[in-house]
Amino acid sequence: MKQPFILLLACLWWLSLNAQETREGVPSIFLECPWGCDMDFLRQEMTYVNFVRDRAISDVFIQQTYLETGGGGLQSTLNFFGNKGFKGRNDTLVYVIPPNASESVHREMLKTNLERGLVPYLLHSEIADRITFSIKPMEVNENTTQKAPTLDPWNYWTLSINGNINASGQEVAKNLSVYGGFNARRITNAVKSQLYVSGDYNHSKFDFGDGEIEEYNQGGYSVGGSQIYSLTPHWSAGVFANAGQSLYNNTQLGVLCLPAVEYDIFPYSEATRRLLTIQYAIGARYNQYFDKTIYFKDSELLGVQNLGAYYSQVLTWGSFNAGVAYGNYLHDWDLNEINFSTGIELNLFKGFNLSLWGNYSVVHNQIELPGNGATKEEALLAIRQLQTGYNYYMWCGVSYTFGSIYSNVVNPRFDNRLF
């Protein structure tokens, strides 16, 4: 019984001999990326700073946020917050990542802008005398000085086509899924327009070996668009429309048209940091059903309205968002739904992180349910919607990291082990 314990102690002792590399006299930074960053690449390239594992022990805390651009790219904002000796020295850098940029382009652009933003902090560090500057000269000639404004032949329209096929199987069960879509959008400061088409098909086959074969098909399509206008720094208005088919929702044809308004308590220009919006929409919905509904309807035209509020805040200690939405049919206000959602990412204290995500809905508006219900097989395969008074989703995660505060070393050995 002692041998496994002795072996464990020997492994821990050997690991402790491999001390973490520390760089003296350079700022310690902590980088927070919402979608993850290639930290190994940054550690290898930026050897003039110390990467640490917690914002509370950093000299500079860098927080990255994203907004999608009209052309399908990303506007990345890097917020620099000075700690300790740099307290009060804050800055912001914004750059745009082109659409369909490779991972290599992403990380190179991030590194370049991190280096630019760190210059003021490095100038007040012990390595200031090692810093050199290089600025590319501007090429000036007759063509550039008289150059006319660039014309966009697409007039800000961005188009994308996507699709996928997924097949899996074994002796008893086989599955085939197909998806395709088209999206067109045009985004300017004044108007945001979007058109989309998508469709999917899923086929499942079960062979139980006794001559009994079960096959199930599911699919649908959706066509829609929106036109949104910027009215003031706080007000927006738009129209949303879509049509589609869904066997899951018993809808052979569903058409929705919703004019809407939105008010942001904060200016929209602050959306990467904070957002508090109130939305109201009122319109009409037409449904034509596969099967007669629980209300004995084959089709119907109904008035609908929605009211909601959403709050989002990004802070140095984490991020928080919460939303509440209410909707009902105008002919019967008892046919309604209320939805609550929230998400929290907290760095409560040194090394401790807490994540909470949740969604809860009170459902009283399932007018499309088929009168004959769903079979057990349809329920298990999620082919048909089931009657319910509520639905929810919850997720909670915690992590606590302690030990060495430095994370400069990159060692990729056995990162992709196959056993």
- Strand tally is 17
Model regions low in confidence, pLDDT < 50 over at least 5 residues:
11-20
The class by helix and strand makeup works out as mainly beta
CATH top-level class of the largest domain = Mainly Beta
Pick out its properties.
single chain; twelve-stranded antiparallel beta sheet; 5 helices; mainly beta; 17 strands; 12% helix; 419 residues
Describe the structure.
By secondary structure, this protein is mostly beta strands. It folds into two domains: 22-130; 157-400, Porin. Helices cover 12% and strands 49% of the residues. It has five helices and 17 strands. The chain has helices spanning 2-16, 39-45, 103-122, 142-145, 376-380; strands at 28-32, 50-51, 60-68, 74-82, 91-97, 157-169, 173-187, 191-207, 213-230, 235-246, 251-264, 274-289, 299-315, 318-329, 332-349, 352-363, 390-400. The strands form two sheets. The chain has a twelve-stranded antiparallel sheet, with no helix packed on it. A hairpin with a 2-residue loop joins strand 15 and strand 16. The longest helix has 20 residues, at 103-122. It is globular and about 80 Å long. The model is unreliable at 11-20 (pLDDT under 50).
Compact summary:
By secondary structure, the protein is mainly beta. It is 12% helix and 49% strand.
Task: Give a topology summary.
Layout (H helix, E strand, L loop, with lengths): L1 H15 L11 E5 L6 H7 L4 E2 L8 E9 L5 E9 L8 E7 L5 H20 L19 H4 L11 E13 L3 E15 L3 E17 L5 E18 L4 E12 L4 E14 L9 E16 L9 E17 L2 E12 L2 E18 L2 E12 L12 H5 L9 E11 L19
Parallel strand pairs: 1-2, 1-3
Antiparallel strand pairs: 3-4, 4-5, 6-7, 7-8, 8-9, 9-10, 10-11, 11-12, 12-13, 13-14, 14-15, 15-16, 16-17
